[in-house]
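Data deposition worksheet. Section B asks for the primary sequence of the deposited chain exactly as it was used as input, without tags or linkers unless they were present during the calculation. Section C holds the resulting structure in token form. Section D is free text for depositor observations; keep each observation to a single sentence. Incomplete worksheets are returned to the depositor.
Section A, Depositor: J.P.
Section B:
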Amino acid sequence: MPIIVLGLVVAAALGGGVSVAANNALPGDALYGVKIGINENVQSALAISQEAQANFEIKAIERRLDEAERLSAEGRLDAEALATIEANFDAHAERVADRIADLQAKENFDAAVDVAAKFQASLEAHAAILARLSAEGGATVQGALSGVSAKVRALISTTASLHANAEARANAEANTDSADASENAGANANIDVNGTASTSGGGASGSGGVNIDIDL
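Section C:
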């Protein structure tokens, strides 16, 4: 049974209210498995295009970081919860990078640039939040958040490189298209001028009577 159908069947069996309530669950909560195992799987299956899939993974990473921030603020960010968040974070981040690479491979450079820029901005916003939480908390909080913070900083650097590469290829593609358009316009103008000529005798028009070269 396709995952989207299975997810919808399970969500219906659980009841809509349970599925909605699960969206606010944190690692360690009873409904967290419903959140990541059913709700997010259904959302992922509904993302058809590669760009939509990349945007879903970015949202999923934002949720994992939100979870870490909320647990830290509540004093509940223990080793088990942190391991769950980091494992999911790594998996989502890898899939975003894969989607960006796929978009570039299909020469959809504008979409690759948009996804990379959105991903970078999201990571930078969360890096600032994590830094604030670490600064406000004690040694325990700083130790708990250090691993996630390090992953976010490393991923920001990687994403910046992906963004720069996608942008460079998008610009190169735009310049190539512009050059091709100019070349085609010049060729068409030369054909029109050389292909039509007037005779001086009978007032009839013909082709090939006059050859005019124009450099455009």
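Section D:
Helices lie at 3-14, 16-22, 32-46, 50-73, 79-105, 109-136, 139-195.
The chain has a mean pLDDT of 79.
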